[in-house]
Amino acid sequence: METPNKEFTITVFTENNIGLLNRITIIFTRRHVNIESLTVSASEIPGVHRFTIVTNADEDMVKKIVKQIEKLVEVLKANYYSHEEIIYQEICLFKIPTSALTYGSMAEEIIRKDNARILAVENDFAVIEKTGHREDTKELFKKLEPFGILQFVRSGRVAITKHYKELHNYLKDLDEAKEYSVQYHQTIND
Asked: Mind listing the pLDDT tens digit for each residue in 110-127?
């Protein structure tokens, strides 16, 4: 029996090398798994970058993808998580006509009730920012659509895990294991 697809968030900690994004995406392409969202940024450790990848697949496939990603030389650590194991957000921007905001309009009331905020107001347009889950931003999109959405953009997911082990502790453990391995092999070869 085939297991159903589920949404997973994959985090990958890497060195910042040219072409790494391409090598990571090829791993998904070869397995015919789509990337729903991709965000890359600096992490809490200088020189280490974090990829946050959202995909829909069965867990066995996600495990295989993560193992394959970890084989890349520049990758320090890769993991996958379910919704219950992370805290996450996305940000979106809406560009609407300025006229939609005039004189206590319904659009302004919607923006306030949805905890969005107005970032800029120009002569012809206003820019609204909303942070939340994809469902939240879709809902606000539907509410603002009658006023005329001129542009819309949504970021990829940013996520933090609920478990405590921090990356620098993992890297320290990894360095200690490598150091032990080197010392062990030197002892055997001597």
From this structure: 999 999 999 999 999 999
